[in-house]
Specification:
CATH superfamily of one domain: MazG-like
Structural class: mainly alpha
Shape: globular
Largest sheet: none
Number of strands: 0
Oligomer: single chain
Distance between the termini: 47 Å
CATH architecture of one domain: Orthogonal Bundle
Helix content: over 70%
Radius of gyration: 19 Å
CATH topology of one domain: Helix Hairpins
Amino acid sequence: MGQDRTGFESLVELVALLRDPEEGCPWDLEQTHQSLSKYLEEETNETLEVLDGFSGNDGGDFEALKDELGDVLLQVLLHSQLAQESGRFNIDDVLTNLSNKLIRRHPHVFGDSKASTIEEVTEQWERIKSDEKQS
């Protein structure tokens, strides 16, 4: 498997293979949501450290950012794989939830609401988020 693999589906397959009881990696097979939580925190912190070196959208270590974002994504994929194995949800459910949330929280883009300033968008976002928590 020395060749480069690209694409999201390929990555999902790689993570599933790591967790395969017969062909997978002993370390990956041992992991639980709880045991992985420290790695999610660690990878998030490492991403934030890279971002601390950025100035605007142009200045920063984009190679390091690309690498750290991949590490955060791996954590999402591992948690999704564990959830799929227990019949709870899969990565497609995560993507669907995220898409629905983005659409719901951007009615000024995907609906009839109006918001033309950052302040109006932020106020609308917070109101929608608050309403979601109460339902």
